Amino acid sequence: QVELKPVQLLSAEDHLEHSLAIERRRIRLGYVQVFQKLMQESNKEGDFSLSREEKDAVSTEQTHVQSTELVLPPHANHHGNTFGGQIMAWMQTVASISASRLCRSHPVLKAVNMFKFWGPSFVGDRLVFNAIVNNTFHNSVEVGVRVEAYNCEEWIQDQPRHINSAFLIFSALDDKGELLTFPRVKP
């Protein structure tokens, strides 16, 4: 690791942007704690009786999509590391297909949340993209995408490296250009 020099804040705008960056970082770090708490709570035994609305909901399993890509030299920089933008494009494609299985239309990407690079991938790696709808809201849907990388040896031994995760938010329009309502989902 390289130790960076502190940023020199010269203007009022610099101070504002610096403060906003600190707040965004605080929120990002807070997501990890919220996620861990939710995971602990979901593992506790509870009442699993379904309401009428949940019984009519679509299973999220119907929205699962898996895609595999081989990282080739055009997908990487001169060091052999996969371009982050290439991974993002592949993630958007698989997430869009997942969302389309639910809305039966062409979903439109509205936002990307919690996009994290956990590790690198390289030329020759196989990248496995798993996408599934996490939840629907009135006019939007959240799709979670997880990316795992394998080199040849890891592929044979089935030992993936988790390199990326993100949540992508989609909406969909009907023929009249109005927002479609998504059905409820059950995990």
Short description:
Helices cover 33% and strands 29% of the residues. It has four helices and seven strands.
What would you say this structure looks like, in words?
- The chain is of the alpha+beta class and 187 residues long.
- The protein has two domains: 10-43; 61-180, Thiol Ester Dehydrase, Chain A.
- It contains four helices and seven strands; from the N terminus they run ααββαβββαββ.
- The protein has a five-stranded antiparallel beta sheet with strand order 2-4-5-6-3.
- The longest helix is centred in the N-terminal third of the chain and has 32 residues, at 12-43.
- The chain is globular and about 55 Å long.
- The termini are far apart.
Provide the descriptors you would attach to this structure in a database record.
carboxylic ester hydrolase activity; HOTDOG_ACOT; ACO12 thioesterase; 4 helices; alpha+beta; two-stranded parallel ribbon; five-stranded antiparallel β-sheet; 2 domains; Thiol Ester Dehydrase, Chain A; 187 residues; acetyl-CoA hydrolase activity; 7 strands
CATH superfamily of the largest domain: Hotdog Thioesterase
How many discrete structural domains? 2
Unreliable parts:
none
Q: What is the highest CATH level, the class of the largest domain?
A: Alpha Beta
Taking the alpha carbons of the first and last residues, their distance comes to: 41 Å
Radius of gyration, whole Å: 20 Å
